[in-house]
TrEMBL record, chain B:
The keyword Transport applies. Keywords: Cell inner membrane, Cell membrane, Membrane, Transmembrane, Transmembrane helix, Transport. One of its GO terms (biological process) is transmembrane transport. This is Spermidine/putrescine ABC transporter permease. The chain crosses the membrane at residues 12-33, 66-90, 102-127, 139-158, 179-201, 244-262. Coiled coil: none annotated. It comes from Amycolatopsis mediterranei (strain S699) (Nocardia mediterranei). GO terms for cellular component: plasma membrane. It comes from the Bacteria.
Length: 297, 275
């Protein structure tokens, strides 16, 4: 920026032609906030993860992968996050498909769906402990209906976390899917109907291929939310064994053992696993999109 | 709307939706009912009803301090992120320059990456500067997703304001300051209001970042709720539920206010403005 201020007018004009002028100074405060509070901590954490308390540069990572109690948190987390994401995204598609047009009560429905997202995972967890507990309403109804003889173990285990992820995650992926579906021109489907395609064909050959890139994004965002599950895994899960997710391991290392270096290392690994999954989904999205536009025209 | 009977698929879809809502209502109502109950063990409803758990919760959890902290954090975060985010959004909306994609990426990342991932290194840095555990630390941490959020909601909003209006003002001799205060300010106000409300809802509901950076004197309502649930058993479950009900009620009020100004989908993600 100083270069712009002190340079000869000619340079200033040349820069202005490329869109660089004093207006860009308005970006500086925003960029500073992101740089100081996001980028710097991230890089600091990365560097800290390679400076363990004892041992060589990679000692933290070696410890993580050497200790099954730590290593397995990756699989535990994937084992919770992937099913939850699949349930949320797959359930969103038919529901959003039915709601995509003008449906009575759509506004009310979307409003109610925002509620669990705003309430957040902590309240959902506390609610689930009450509602899904051995003496909760859900188990009472199931017993009265004769579905089960004794209360189902729904909380303080894997099921509890999965349920809480569906309650907060489903509305999120539904609203995203709905917005992507609403963006598809309805006349395309009408054209297909005119040409004699039935409902199933219209969905499979017209809507789904157009929706798929959006679904990939929805999947990624829902997955990221589910993968970083922390409060519900602690509260409504079994944080010592069955639902010891990677975020708990990171928190434990950093703020209970006060080993910030190890905590940062686990946080970095969390980011890496997340990026791998997102990368795979986005790679799939790339192939899919090309096929859909190039293939049939 | 035609052929409801001929489409069993619709019925299944509506059944799933209703099932979801019934369970959602169960989850929320269990907490509310328990918070008003005297004793509730194994029956459909509590033995009797009382409100004394609210007084207990208010005293035990120091809720007046907690609510004050929550309000201060939320207001400061809104003020700073609007003050910092709106100018940045203006620059992004009006100029195209080399490296713009990089700048956009930088603003998108803090929203895409889940808070717990960058929260741990951030908290470490804040501890290093002795800011963690203070209200300043909590505010700084909450700025990380809020500033980019304001930038990303305001950029499309500013893009749809015709630049000719500004040009006309300048032609008529307005200086930069008056262009901002007299021309852009009033036009931007609805967008700023919407963005502020979204930031408010997100900050009050933000658990991870506040949890990682808050000390005993700087917990917000949602973190206080987590702590009390986590330490359940020490205190009566009903007073925990009373606090949960207070949290739910305040979130619902915020939500109702927010929905007067914004579209429900905007609360979740950044979607094209429909104004």
């Amino acid at each position: 920026m100083t270069a712009v201020a002190t340079a000869r007018p000619a340079l200033r004009h040349r820069l202005a032609e490329r869109g660089i002028d004093r207006t860009l100074l308005l970006l500086v405060p925003g960029l500073l906030v992101v740089a100081c509070l996001f980028l710097y901590p991230f890089l600091y954490g990365l560097q800290l993860s390679f400076a363990p308390r004892k041992g060589g540069v990679f000692a933290n990572y070696a410890r993580f992968f050497g200790d099954p109690y730590l290593r397995n948190t990756i699989w535990t987390t994937l084992g919770i996050a992937l099913p939850a994401t699949f349930v949320n995204v797959l359930a969103s598609i038919p529901i959003a498909y039915v709601m995509r047009g003008r449906v009575r009560g759509k506004r009310l429905l979307t409003t109610i769906l925002v509620v669990p997202i705003t309430l957040g995972t902590v309240l959902t967890a506390q609610g689930l402990i009450m509602y899904g507990g051995p003496a909760g309403w859900l188990n009472k109804v199931l017993t009265v209906l004769g579905v089960t003889d004794q209360p189902l173990p729904l909380i303080h285990n894997y099921t509890g976390v999965l349920l809480s992820l569906v309650i907060t995650g489903f509305p999120f992926s539904f609203l995203l899917t709905l917005s992507y579906l609403s963006g598809i021109d309805p006349s395309l489907e009408k054209a297909a109907a005119t040409l004699g395609a039935n409902g199933v064909q219209r969905f499979r050959r017209i809507t789904l291929p157009l929706l798929a890139p959006g679904l990939a994004i929805t999947f990624c965002l829902s997955f990221v939310m589910a993968f970083s599950v922390f409060p519900s895994a602690q509260l409504v899960g079994d944080p010592a064994n069955e639902t010891r997710v990677i975020s708990i391991a990171a928190y434990h290392a950093a703020f209970e053992e006060y080993d910030y270096s190890m905590g940062s290392a686990v946080a970095m690994l969390m980011a890496v696993v997340m990026l791998i999954v997102i990368g795979l989904v986005m790679a799939w999205r790339g192939t899919l999109y090309r096929g859909a536009t190039g293939g049939k025209g | 709307m035609t052929g409801w009977v001929a489409r069993p698929g619709r019925w299944v879809v509506w059944a799933v939706v209703v099932f979801f809502f019934v369970n959602l209502a169960g989850v929320v109502l269990s907490v509310v009912v328990d918070s008003f109950g005297t004793q509730w063990f194994g029956t459909w409803l509590p033995d009797g009803f009382t409100t004394h758990w609210y007084a207990d919760a208010w005293r035990e959890f120091g809720l007046s301090d907690v609510l004050l902290t929550t309000a201060i954090v939320a207001l400061v975060v809104i003020a700073v992120s609007v003050a910092v985010g709106v100018p940045a959004a203006y620059a992004l909306a009006r100029r195209s320059f080399p490296g713009k994609r990089l700048v956009m990426l930088l603003f998108v990342l803090p929203i895409l990456i889940p808070p717990i991932t960058y929260g741990i290194p951030l908290a470490t840095v804040l501890y290093k500067f002795h800011l963690a555990g203070t209200i300043t630390g909590v505010i700084l941490a909450n700025l990380v997703p809020s500033v980019p959020f304001v930038v990303l909601t305001m950029t499309p909003f500013i893009e749809q304001i015709d630049p000719k209006i500004e040009a006309a003002a300048r032609m008529s001799g307005a200086r930069t300051v008056s262009v901002f205060t007299r021309i852009l300010g009033p036009l931007l106000l609805p967008g700023i209001l919407a963005a502020s409300i979204l930031v408010l809802v997100r900050t009050v509901g933000m658990f991870e970042l506040t949890f990682l950076t808050a000390g005993p004197d700087s917990t917000t309502l949602v973190v206080a709720l987590y702590n009390s649930v986590f330490a359940a058993g020490i205190r009566a479950n009903q007073s925990v539920d009373a606090m949960a009900t207070i949290y739910t009620a305040s979130m619902l009020v915020l939500l109702l206010v927010a929905l007067r100004f914004v579209n429900p989908t905007q609360l979740v993600t950044r979607i094209r403005e429909e104004t």
